[in-house]
Amino acid sequence: MDNFDFHLSTRIHFGKGSTACLKEEVLQYGKKVFFVYDAGPVKGSGLYDQVVKVLTDNGIAFTEFTGVEPNPRHTTVNRGVAALREFGADCIVAAGGGSTLDCAKAISFGVYHDGDVWDFYCGKVQIQKTMPVIAIPTLAAAGAEVSFSAVVSNLETKQKIGLRNPKNRPVCAILDPTFTFSVPKYHTACGVVDIMSHTYESYIGPDNLVLQDGIAEAIQRACIESGRKVMADPCDYDARAALLWASDLSISALGSLGRSCFTAPVHTMEHILSAYYDIVHGAGIAIVSLAWFKYCLTPENAPIFAKWGRNVWGLKDAATDYDTGLAAIAAFEDFCKELGLPTRLGDVNITRENIQEIADNEIGRLAGANTWLRPITTREQLFEVYALAL
Asked: With left for phi above 0 and alpha for psi between -120 and 50, is residue 197 left, alpha or beta?
C-alpha cells in the first residue's frame, strides 16, 4: 500500500429534517448569506421554502443567485463573484446538484481575486482564501458537497477542469435524502453511474488491496441495488439515502487511497467530451467508461476485470478470466441500458469526425495518462478509446 494523506474537514448532517441545522451553521459566520441554488430541484423539492424560512425567521439577510448551467461556465462564476461582492455576504449557502455546488465553490475563492476566475484554472494564480460554503445537495452523484474539486467549463478554450484544493471543501454538508425524491429518472441514473465511477476508476487497476477493494465493491453494489430500487420507486427513502451516502463515501476516496494508480482516466476523457459538446456528465461517464473498459481488457489485465465481475456483478467464473472480464463489461453495459443511459457516442450525436478532432487537439492535455492501467500517449491511442464508444 502506498503512502497517503487523508483529511475530510466537512461537517455532515445526514437525514430527514437535517436542514434544522442550517441556522446554527450560518450564524457561525455572520448574518448575511449568498444563496446559490438550482431553481428546478430546489423549489420543486420544497428545499427553497425551508432555506428561506430559516434565514428569514432568524434575521439573516440574503440575496439569491441562480441559473447555473449543468456544466457551469467560468462566465457564470464571474457573474456570481460580482453579485457576491455587491452584496457582501459572510458565507455561501449552495443548494442543488453538483454543478451548482461546484459553481458556488468557485465563487468562494474567485471573490478574493480581482481578475477572471479562469486565472485559477489556467494556473496564473493560486487559491489563497475561500468564503465558507454550506452545501445542500439535491442529487446523489458527484459528492461535490464534500469534495475538494470545483469543476468549471470554458467554452472559448473548450476546456472543463476540476480545480482541486483542500480549501475548496464546503465547511458543512446537509444531506436530506427526501430532497432527492423529485430528481427525474434520467438524472438519477446519471448520478448512479457517476458515483460508481469514483470507485471503479481506481479499483480497476494493478493493486490488490483487501480493505480498499472491499469498500469500492460495496459502494458499487449499493449503487446497483439502490439504483434499481429508485428507478422503480423514486420515493424509496432507504434507497435514496444509500445513494446519497454512497456519493460522499465514493468521492472521499476511501476505496482509492493507498493505490499506486490513483488517477481518473474516465473523468479526464469525459471532461473533454463535455467541454466540446456540453453533454450531461453522467451520460458521458457511461459512454466513456464502456469504451475505457474495452480498451483496458487485455489477457494481462483480465484478472482485474474477472474480480470485478465476481465481486460487483455477481458473475460466475467463465472458461477464462478474459471471458469473465467480457461478461463484466457486458453487465455494466446492460445496467446502463436498464437505467436508460446512452452507451454510444452516436446516442448523443457525436461522430467519428468529432472524435478525430478531439484526439488531434487534446492529446497534450491528458495529464498523467502515461500512468493509467493502459497508458494513452499518442493521438492514435486516444482516438482508439473514443472509437470504441462509436
From this structure: alpha
